Amino acid sequence: MATCGGCSFFVLALRTVCGQRQARPLLTQAVCSSRTIFTSTRSYSLDSLSSGSRKAPAQTGKTERTSPSLGLPQRNLSAVAVSLQGQCRPLCRYDLLDLGEVVENTRKALTCRSLRRFIVEPALARVVADHLAPDLEDGKAVIFECNPGPGVLTRTLLNCGAQRLVALESDKSFLADLQALESKLDGQFEVVHCDFFKLDPIGQGSMKPPAMYSEKLFSDLGISEVPWSADVPVKVVGIFSQRNERSMLWKLTYALYERQSVFRYGRVELIMFISEKEYTKIMAKPGDYRNYQALGALWQMACDIELLHKEPWSSFVTTSKNGGMAVPRSSIPNDHLCLVRITPREDFFSSALTPSNGGTLVMMIKQCLAKRKARLVDRLNSWCPGSGRDLMSKMGLYEDVVTGDVHPDEYKRLFELMEQSEQFTQSWLYEEILENTKNTGCV
């Protein structure tokens, strides 16, 4: 049937306004609220089809949008979308950031010269974002993303409603793209040339990025200290560096127990990928003399630890000298990276356990669990001469119990009882602390 030119123009304009478009089967239609992906090709796009029956919400100040199933608030994420306001085509509800092609994101990741792992698959990024859904919905905490690289997880978090996301990137080669994204958004995304794992290095003096003092980082971002009992102010998301994973965990342990570094600002939560080997050790229980060690006991004592997800090493892009996955050898299962949520307990500190003596407790646990088949009463007598039996009696512990059979909360209670004892002496600690200080170069 023939139609006039004016009618054809009207029909075309109407389709444009309603957001109807022809289906694009060669593109992946990925939306954070959906767990289904179509991979006809390796091109991933978040420019989803919008229904012609939906109308654009009224624009009042900073637009907030809602993910259809998660109910996550989403602000203006696209400069292009902002520029379309007031024009013929209203802002599409699903006009989200494009995650890019996996091949291109992989190419960018492989430009990194140091040993690192990257998330380049949108499906994996979405898994992480799904586990952060309550955090994104709450919107109270600032989210630090450690070493985002190509930014696939970055864009996914923004698409899922992150209200304030800070990218801490240590490699200069990734900064330009991240800063370009920052310039397009409405203040909910910031980029800092910084390595989270190099915050607060030992020593004093001027500091050059990516090393940085946490005081400067938090001050520049306008994040203030809050009481320990307050809500979590910052959530840190990322992948622990394989090169110094255990050292970093120890560094964070001391910072937590003494409320230094990032923990000076409150109960900072870690949502991080760690190796399956380290996760197994951290979660080991008393009686497992091989894996139950001081580091795990200290984290269990201070924090709630939740395993969110396990992902094979092969799901990550790894930059290594030999081009392989660089999976460290281990005598215990180590086939995955584990996404773990570590939340410091609100009631961890008490009148007897404070940041001023938290370091002493760390040293005590290290001494106890260095030999996990040693008698606990002998260790207690070395700290509190002649009081070992009395302390154990108050705790209801048998006299012949060994250190590797004592639970983390029992160690905490023993320490609090010793702190209240007149016989408690820390003289044995001074020499070891001084020795550690010399080894780290503080004196």
TrEMBL record:
Look up keyword Metal-binding and say if it applies.
Answer: no
- Residue span of region Disordered: 46-72
> Where in the numbering of this chain does the Ribosomal RNA adenine methylase transferase N-terminal domain appear?
124-346
Q: Which InterPro entries match?
A: KsgA/Erm, rRNA_Ade_methylase_Trfase_N, SAM-dependent_MTases_sf
- EC number(s) given by UniProt: 2.1.1.-
Compartments reported by the entry: Mitochondrion
The similarity comment for this entry is:
Belongs to the class I-like SAM-binding methyltransferase superfamily. rRNA adenine N(6)-methyltransferase family.
- Name this polypeptide is given: rRNA adenine N(6)-methyltransferase
